[in-house]
Amino acid sequence: MHTAETLTLARLPSGVEVETTVHTYGDAAERGTAGSQTHADDGDGPTVYVQAAQHGREINGTETLRRVHERLDADDLSGTLVAVPVADPLTFDRVSYTTPEALDSVNSNMNRVWPGDEEGSLHERMAAALWEYAGDADYIVDLHTGSLEMLTHTVYLDGDDESRRLAEAFGTDMLLAEAAGDDADTEWSERNFGGKLRVAATRAGIPSITPELAHNKQLVEPAIETGVRGVFNVLRELGMLPGDPEIPADQTTARNHLGRVRAAESGLFHPGPEAELGREVDAGDHLGRVYDPTTYEVLQEATADRSGVVYSVCREATVTAGETLVGVAMPADE
Question: What's the pTM value of the predicted model, to 2 decimals?
Fold first, then answer.
């Protein structure tokens, strides 16, 4: 069975309500329950919470959930699937990554404030409203997308075995293990990554993953179908649907937020031929150059600072100092 309910996330200064739709499939939908009552403590199968479009330009996750809706026979589901196709309507309407300062001057990025605060800033209140569902789930899948030039991958919190199991089951070729807290690099704390849904949930004892389906602003078939297959894989891995998940034979596990080649100066970035997605590079390999568009002076010869696999390349040529030019996934220590 399937139900859909309108959820008020927050209220704008004018009094206009920020709303989204929460879809519930399976056991809880049949009982007519929602929110904290969807938990599987009553003997039913597990509850999986899946959301998309925390960042409004990342729309392939939204289309993924629409296709899951079309293809899922909820009567076959052992347990409950809760799906939110548009987690942040404010960024979705603006086709943006964050909200304008006028709407939330404290927390422009919703994925930095979990589990939220019902008396906090606008994004904190929105996260708190969704946490009523996500925080009571047994597993969480937070669908995101990256840039046009990024390998599809799944991120999980390093050291959490159940989250890794979920990541492997989702079925992308690459897995990125993200260190947290004292084990992470300085960027992790500076960018408040502890407020990500996946990190907050895992720390709360809920195994969670973030699939990055690649490509934003455009509906891209390979990314969408990877997402659909991944969601069904998770449901099969957890015994909520019959059959086995379709998992690649050779999955690569690497470290997240390491091996980023950054712009030392602002200018125009011209990637080199070695900056090719999926290519293995060694420390010192040339990946491109940044030059001054007015004087033509080469400002930086960008090189890999470690060996690994190229998983992202900046194709928007105008870059600012500190921006990531090329992402190199460093193999994880097994």
Answer: 0.92
Asked whether the predicted pLDDT for residue 42 surpasses 60, the reply is no
The identity of residue 227, as a single letter, is: G
8: helix, strand or coil:
strand
pLDDT tens string 46-71: 999 999 999 999 999 999 999 999 99
Token readout for 5 is 């309910």
Beta strands in the chain (DSSP E): 2-11, 17-26, 47-51, 80-84, 139-142, 153-157, 174-178, 208-212, 252-255, 260-262, 267-271, 280-281, 286-291, 298-303, 308-313, 318-319, 324-331
Q: Give 133's contacts (C-beta < 8 A, 6+ positions apart).
A: 22, 34, 35, 38, 49, 82, 84
Q: Measure the CA–CA gap between 44 and 194, rounded to whole angstroms.
A: 31
**pLDDT-derived band at 39, boundaries 50, 70, 90:** very low
Q: In 267-322, at which residue ranges do the beta strands (DSSP E only) sit?
A: 267-271, 280-281, 286-291, 298-303, 308-313, 318-319
* Amino acid identity, position 48: V
